[in-house]
Amino acid sequence: xxxxxxxxxxxxxxxxxLSLVFTVIEGARISAVRMKFECVADIGMNSVLAEYHRELLxxxxxxxxxxxxxxxxxxxxxTEAHLYSYMQKNLQLPIGGRSGGIRDFLAMDAGQVHIxxxxxxxxxxxxxxxxxxxxxxxxxxxxxxxxxxxxxxSELERxxxxxxxxxxxxxxxxxxxxxxxxxxxxxxxxxxxxxxLDNPADIANATRSSGxxxxxxxxxxxxxxxxVPLNDYISHRTLMQGxxxxxxxxxxxxxxxxxxxxxxxxEKYGYYGHxxxxxxxxxxxxxxxxxxxxxxxxxxxxxxxxxxxxxAANVLYILTDTAKVAEAEAMALALTAVCLCPELAxxxxxxxLFAWAYVESLQDVKTLLSGGRVPIFKTASDWKTGLxxxxxxxxxxxxxxxxxxxxxxxxxxxxxxLQNKDTRTFRAMDIMEMDIRKTPGNARFRMDxxxxxxxxxxxxxxxxxxxxxxxxxxGFY
Length: 477
Fold this sequence. Notes:
Helices cover 53% and strands 10% of the residues. The chain has helices at 2-49, 54-60, 76-91, 123-136, 142-159, 166-180, 200-206, 212-216, 247-253, 258-268, 284-290, 295-318, 322-338, 345-369, 393-396, 408-418, 421-436, and strands at 65-66, 108-120, 184-188, 191-194, 373-374, 406-407, 450-462, 467-475. Helix 7 runs parallel beside helix 14 and helix 13 crosses helix 14. The radius of gyration is 36 Å and the shape is rod-shaped. The termini are far apart.
C-alpha cells in the first residue's frame, strides 16, 4: 500500500511539471513567432531596397527602386509582390526540411503586405530627388559657386541687362531715319529715285536673321543634330503620385539645397564643349534652359540669350566711349554728306554704334563658345572689334580662347540660377530618363515610378493559431 502512495504522488507531480513544460514551450513558440516576424520584416524590406536601380546609381549616384522592375507596368503592387515573396521565403523551412522529417516549430506564413506610403522621385516638385542630391553633394563647397553667381546676377540687375530692350532702341533710330527721309534725284526725265545712304549698319543688321550659331560657329555642320520627341518624358506627361518626402528623411537629411542641386547638374550633365558620350542630348544643360526638342534649338536659345545680354552691355558701354562715338560720328557725317542730307547724321551715328555693339556681341558669343572669357561690363581694353567689322560681320569674327571675366559655364550658371526651379528640376529628370532608357532593359524607365522610402503594413499567421501585425518605415536615408 505504501508503494501506491508514491505512484499517485508521482503522477500528480508529472502532471504539474508537464503543464509547466508545455506552457514554457508554447511561450517560447509565441516569442519565437514574434522575433522571427521582426527579423523577416527587416530582411524583406531591406531586400526590396537592395533592388535599387543599378543604372541610376551608376550614372547619377542616386538610390531609387524602380516599381516597374524593367517591365511595362509601374505600380506599387509590383513592390508589394516582391516584399511578400521575400517574407514568405524567409518564413518557410529550407527546401527539403519537411521531407527530412523536421517539423516546423513555428509554421508561419506571410499574410497581408500593403505599402500605403512611399516617396517618389518627382514628389513635391522633385524635392525627394533633390534631397538625395543634397546628401550626395554634402561636401561640395557651395560658397565658391554662390559668390560667382551672386556677382553675375547683381551685375545683370545693376545694368538691367535682362530687361533692356536694345532691339526697340535700335529700331527707334532707324525709324527716325525713315521719318526724315532721303533726298531724291532725277535719274531720267520724270523718273526720281532716293539717293542711297549706303549705311554699313544695314549690312550688319541683315545678318540678324541668319541665326546666331550660323554666325559664331566656324563649322555649324559639326554641331549635334539630335532630335528627341518629348511627349513621353516626365515634364510633358501626367505623373504618378506618391506621398511626398517622409518625415524621417527630412529630419535626418535636412531640406534640399537649390545651389547644391545646380552644382550637381554641372557634375553629372553635359553642355556645349563638355559633351558626354552616354547622353542622348549632347547639350543637356542647354536643354534644361530651353526645353526644345533638338540640340540645335537648345544651343541656339542659349546663344541668343547670351547675345542679348552682351548686346545690352556693349551698347551701354559704347555710348560712353568718346573715341568710338567720334569714329561712328565721322562715318555718319561722311555718309550723309554724300547724300546731301546732314540732318541724318545723328540717327545714322546711333545705328552705326548699335551695329558695332551687335558685332562685338557676336564676337563675345564666339569667344565664349571657343572656351574664352568675357566680362559682363567691358572697358576699352576688352573691346575686340573695329568699326569696319560692321561691313563684314562673318569675316571679322575670330576664335579667342583667352580674355578675362566669365566663361560660358559661368553664363550657364547664371541662367540656371534665374530659371524657375520646378522647370529646372523636371527637365533635369527628362535627361535622366533619356539616358537611362538608352541602357539595356530600361526602354520604359520613368523617374516618377522610382521610390526611395516606403511604409509597409505587414502581417503573419501561424498554423498554431497566432497572427501578428506591424508597420515599418524603410528607405535610403
